[in-house]
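Lay summary. Proteins are chains of building blocks that fold into shapes, and those shapes determine what they do. In this project we predict the shape from the chain. Here is one chain we studied, written as its sequence of building blocks.
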Amino acid sequence: MSTFDPLREQLAQAAREFGGDTVSGILSGMVNDVDRALREELEIFPVCHHSPASALAMVRRLREKQPKVIYLELCEDLRPLLTELRNCRLPVAVQAFATDLDGFPKAWAPLSVVAPITEASAEYQAISYALETPGVELVLVDRSTDHVFQWAPKEEAQKSPKEEEAGLHGDAVGVEIGDLRPRFAELEEHLLHHGKVRHWSEWWDQYVEQPLSGADYDTYRQVMVLIGSLFRRLNPDGHRLSVDEDRERYMWTRMREHLATSGADPADCLYVCGAFHAASHVEQFGLRSTEPFEITPRTNTKWLYGLIPSSHSAIEAQFGLASGSVSIAAATWAKAVTRSGLIPFQLAGQKGTRKRSAKLPPPKPAIAAADKLTGFLSRPPALDELDQSELLGWCVDIVRLARRNGYLASTADAIAVFETSILLAGIRNRARPTPYDFQDAAVTCIEKDVVPGRRDVRRLCEILLGGDRVGEVGYDALPPLARNVYDRLEPLGLDLTKRTIQRALLDLNADPELVPCSDLLWMLRYLLPHDAVRPIMGERRLGERSIQESWDLSFGKHQRSIIELGYEGVTIEQVMEQRLRRKVRDPKATAADALAAVEDAMLYLGSKRFADELGARAVELLATERSVDDAPEVLRRIRRLMAYYRTNEPELPAWCEEFATAGYAHYCTLLPTAVVDDDTGVRQVAAMLGFLFSMESLALALGCDRAQLELAVQQSHPEAPAKVAVLWAARTQLGLLTQAELRRRCDELLANPLVVPSFPQYIMGFVQAIEPVPALSGFVVEVISKAFGRLPDNVLLPWLPRLITTLRDQAGELMPALVREAGRTFPGSLAAVDAWTPPWSARPAPPKAASAPPASGPVAELLLGHPAACDAVAALLGCEGEWRAPAAAGAEHREARALLAEHPESALAVAALLA
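And here is the predicted shape, written in a compact code that computers can read:
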């Protein structure tokens, strides 16, 4: 006869009366699952994720049983990291990370798996006991991190949650140890409604945590398996259930393998797993099962392992818990430890904890489990008495916090919160208000329509009850790269482990030893999030270095990012080089990306060899591009790089010359099609022509043909007015169109009423034309001035806002040249405006020719001797004039004759040469 036969019969009778055979089958099946788990030869310890009740039960059981082997539901390849927990301040997360994938789609990279660990968790108590007790072996039996993604469907593996609260975990896949939450939405909604609570965390605290926190081990164990069985039987997610069953087969296979090889006695072993898995139905369940399960080999993906800081809010965001629930659990754990007198286990040297030492008592003999479920389910929960002093302290402290954060709270509000907390607890069948009751009461009594500061009352309650505790990975547990970063920044004299923002002042002239620190900070600025390393004063550009710098550093807050850099390389320089190389080798990389990488390599690494490698890749990318969308970026970067090389190097690198010739041919080829393509903007066309004109002298010197550019311009026949204006400017630059002809065409456009509405588009084209033809800036000022003077108001006024926004967005770098030209053209004072005449409107009289002395010689003598013929021609043409006597021979060249007479050597040498 089974221990639970009376309970099974009682539940079956109740189900038949109220719910029929379906409910009867579920209830009896739950009791069967409990009976099966308790009869298993290997003791199963069911837990819930970050549950204080589970942690308390774990401490009690470990001190009673003192097992020699602990099997823990955690990825088996994470075992070497657990010893490093003693160098950290909890909470932290054990992480596996992979960037170079072999066996998974490249689009999934990077892959990351995290398992957060807090002090108020049963798994941490088991780990601490195993690592601190001699002769105890800790064995992780869950699937490896590689199998996590092998078994994940493609659509799930590509999910990347980017919630701000989960920043410490990023988009990592979380390993849930003891995930107990209904996977049946209707069931969860039903429980929340009838439990009179707002979210699942509060329901769990009221109906599971509080009743089980002081229960004996047998009661705890049976109730947890019962809950796991209920959630398992009401699980509609078939795929997730199949993955969980494969995990259970995996774990039981690993445990049987270990027992077979180690020869351990199952009576001295403890299997710690989630309550969901404790009620497993797989054929491989139990040590006596002979059903085989084939474990597939791991892929060739190289996994890297480490510890990253975690926090209560990160755990809540990643595992779908209510905000503040992990902080409340931590506070509940601390209170329960004090009240019960239990001494929890902890790792020696653990940061952030006080030293506890207690000798283990002799182990107690195992006693057959009795039926504790019947009594637990039949009797009402014991109501805790009101702890008046604790509640009063909460009410006073929340009012103080509220006033500090801008709320107009008073003593009356503290009294109201106190009374409302008791009222809410009574409505929810509790004599002692829980932190959730207090939180709701505080929001009801203190919260106003508008939050005066950054924190609302609910957030203030979370701070009051424990706050968002953030973990820290100790120096000894950091990867080599992270330790190298801290060592190299030591001359700054700052405590970089603090989570506050610290100001670093660097005088590079007075303290040259700080120059390496400056170089490292600029590289970290590139690699880390923008607010981790933020320059306040100083900049780094090609050919320029600051003599003084000021930085805001927040390394403690972004320790996870620094640790993950250690997964990519041994030094920051290596990671930087790998990032840049990966950037230019990406299938979506463009020539502009490669030029940016060249610039970054010169700025941060100073490696000419590496810059040449990236530059060669830029040439390859430019030659294969079929779009000119990045032409403005390409032009801006190649100009800056060439100016740097011409200033600081004896000659241009070979890749720059190849880039100039390849770009000349590339843009000449694409120009005729780009100007008629509607998807290509005028800015791109102007940038193409700017590249061709600015690189023309270098390209021609390297063997390119100018006829190619002329043919490309002549074959370009755009229809958009802005592109037409740019092509006219290009023709002017090539000498195919004079500026007078260009001015005449613009005047004709302004005189044509059909073209006047589109004339602003021509102006935008001329503004963009300053990029390829800077000498045209004066003409652009003239055209804009004529437009303002001649365009009607119905055309000019709607166009002005668009002109301003377009100039700001697309021609910001061209405006200084345009403003300087306008300053030279227009008068400098207001008084001179009335008398000022635009240079393009004035009609100056033709200059009067200076009278030259009559020429002398045979022709002049012939004309003077026969003046009648000249007078007849002058009369025919209507010209008037008078005859003048010729100058004396040699008078008109008196200075030249004197020079030759004084210095005859040159004339004699020329004569000798000609002779």
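What the prediction tells us: The chain has a mean pLDDT of 83.
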